[in-house]
Amino acid sequence: MPKFTPADHAALIRRYFKACNDADYQALVDCFTPDAVHYFPPGLPEIPWRTADTIAKKWIWCVSELGSQWTIEKILVGHDSPEAVIEWTHWKNKSGTALRGDEWYRFDPDTGKIAEIRAYYAAPADKGVKINELFDFDYAGRGYHLKSE
Prior knowledge:
Blueprint: H1 6-22, H2 25-30, E1 32-39, E2 49-50, H3 52-66, E3 68-77, E4 83-92, E5 97-107, E6 114-121, E7 131-132
Parallel strand pairs: 1-6, 5-7
Antiparallel strand pairs: 1-2, 3-4, 4-5, 5-6
């Protein structure tokens, strides 16, 4: 049984975000177990996303239709279990808006691939603001991205 380190898990999350930003189907699928599930808060259509194929196709759609790009703000990786949590920003460049949030990852201990993602948004998606994020939090002062890369 392979042993995957916290560094392996962090590297996989970074590869996953690169694959999302590149809209690279095969690279996305390669990050997941075939039966992976991506959970979201209520309000999005067709959730949760089930299977690596579905997850890859949905992110590719977001890049194409919304101009989506994502940045990782922070990564914390478990040292006693195959889990991680990150903070991210989802830049929706075609509308000039963004959404901040967290994701919890569960990795398959045999393959090291992502088996599950649970997404949590910093705030409900408010169509009246440009960037959905925590109110009065000093994003700039903490070194967060303030625009899409």
